[in-house]
Specification:
Elements: H1 2-33, H2 39-56, E1 59-64, E2 73-76, H3 83-88, E3 94-98, H4 100-103, H5 107-113, E4 117-119, H6 126-138, E5 143-145, H7 166-171, E6 175-184, E7 187-188, H8 200-208, E8 213-219, E9 233-237, E10 254-256, E11 259-265, H9 271-290
Parallel strand pairs: 1-8, 2-5, 2-6, 3-4, 3-5
Antiparallel strand pairs: 6-7, 6-8, 9-11, 10-11
Length: 293
């Protein structure tokens, strides 16, 4: 009987995915006919689909803090593929995804039709995607990114790919840090993480074979990005920066992650401010996603 229940729940997820495919097909027809599809409409329909998919998953979502009412760049830790529907149901959002997702059957097509932006990490196109993100935010469309670039077990944070945070500074919008944590019986959920060699079907069967878990979703106060017309700083590494910091730093330098850096005025914008924002978000996410019960 338990196995039949698991299969029934998986069948429900597949039915919701079929609904999403039909919705994406409508947008595809609109594109072929040359009918304009605003990002607002895509996000609204995407949120409707995410809510239905979340209801089919074995999680109860609790929201702590106030959801933003203005378009912002959302920044979150990443534990599982389930983060996307569970986050996508609480607000109309577009997502920044890795380029491989676009090639996935079904999921890639759904993501593209929902208005996701795609980045190929390590290919040198960070400036291009940064411009796309800036344009997206300037048009008052909220966007969510996972700066770790991959999933974790929920107990720690990976290194941030924080350069793209500068898009919020370029667009003059605030950043909204959000922390997610999966709990089961008051402890970190060992079943929710989608890591390593996990495949989707095995992960779903593992989730549905157990009782409902809880996703705690915590909103920080938004971080205001510096205005574009204020003085900007570039942090440039000196020759000595390549060595581990000895603690005897120049009084105008910043020690961070064992590197010595020197600010230079009137140079390439946003990098110094972006580094400061990255440190603030990393610290807050660690305290709220990995270090509390």
């Amino acid at each position: 009987m338990g196995r039949l229940r698991v299969y029934g729940r998986i069948a429900r997820v597949l039915l919701v995915v079929a609904l999403g495919l039909s919705m994406a097909g409508v947008f595809g027809v609109f594109e072929r006919l040359g009918i304009a599809n605003s990002m607002v409409r895509r996000q609204r329909w995407s949120r409707f689909f995410m809510a239905r998919l979340s209801n089919a998953l074995p999680f109860r979502v609790t929201v702590h803090g106030e959801l933003p009412q203005q378009p912002m760049l959302w920044v979150s830790n990443h534990v599982s593929w389930t983060d996307i529907p569970l986050l996508g149901m609480v607000a109309p959002l577009s997502f920044l995804s890795k380029a491989e997702v676009r090639t996935w059957p079904v999921a890639g097509w759904l993501a593209a039709k929902a208005g996701s932006l795609f980045i190929r990490r390590g290919s040198g196109d960070s400036q291009l995607i940064r411009k796309q993100m800036t344009r997206h935010l300037e048009q008052k469309h909220p966007l969510l990114m996972f700066p770790e670039g991959t999933t974790t077990d929920g107990r720690s944070l990976r290194t941030f790919h924080g350069r793209l945070l500068a898009s919020a500074i370029d667009a003059e919008v605030a950043l909204q840090p959000v922390a997610i944590r999966y709990l089961r019986d008051g402890q970190i959920d060992p079943l929710a993480p989608f890591i390593g060699d996990d495949d989707l079907l095995s992960h779903l069967m593992r989730l549905f074979a157990n009782d409902q878990a809880t996703l705690r979703f915590i909103c920080s106060s938004p971080l205001s990005a510096p205005a574009r017309n204020v003085r900007r700083w570039r942090i440039r590494r000196s020759r000595r920066c390549r060595r581990p910091c000895s603690g005897r730093c120049h009084k105008t330098s910043q020690c961070r992650f064992g590197r010595r850096m020197r600010p230079e005025a009137n140079a390439v914008p946003n990098v110094g401010a972006c580094s400061h924002i990255q440190v603030c978000i990393t610290k807050w996410l660690f305290e709220n996603a990995c270090n509390w019960g």
